[in-house]
Amino acid sequence: MKRALKILLPMLLAAVKAGAVEPAREFHPDITTLCDSTVLFPLPDSCLLSAAIEIRASVTKPSAKATPQSNGFAAIMTGRDGTAIEAWLIPTADDYDPLSRKRQAGFSLLLKRPEAKDSVLISKKISGCVAPADGFNTLGMEMDSGGNLTVYAGDKKPEDIATVQDVSLYPVAVGMKSRGASDIDLIVTETIADPVAALSTGKSPHDISRLLSSPQPEGPEGFWHFLDRDTDNRSIRLGGEYTIAIVADDDTPTPADNDARSYTILYIAGAKVENGSWKPGMKKGHLTATLFKNHYNLRWITADMQYLNTECNARLSDDKSIISFNFPIYGSSVRFSRQPAPGALPEK
Question: Cα separation of 171 and 49, whole Å?
Answer without folding.
Answer: 11
